[in-house]
Amino acid sequence: MDTQHFIAFDLGATSGRTILGTLQGTQLTLEEVTRFPNQMLPLNGHFYWNIYSLYEHLKKGLAEVAKKKLPITSIGIDTWGVDVACFNADGNLIGLPYAYRDPQQTVGQKEVFFEQVMPADQLYARTGLQHMDFNTLFQLYALARRDDFHLRHARRLLFMPDALSYLLTGEMVTEYTIASTSQLLNPSTRRMDEELMKAAGIRPELFGTMVEPGHRIGLLRQELCEELQIDPVPVIAVAGHDTASAVAAIPASDPDFAYLSSGTWSLMGIESQGPVINEQTTHYNITNEGGVDGTIRLLKNITGLWIVEQCLKQWRKEGTEYSYPQMVALAEEAEPFRCFINPSDPCFTNPAHMPQAILDYCARTGQERAPRTHGEFIRVIFESLAMKYRETLDVFHQLSDHPLRKLHIIGGGSRNQLLDQFTANAIGLPVYAGPSEATSIGNIMLQAKAAGAVSSLADMRRVISANVQPMEFLPTDADSWNAAYGRYLQCIGGR
Question: Is 231 a catalytic residue?
Answer without folding.
Answer: no
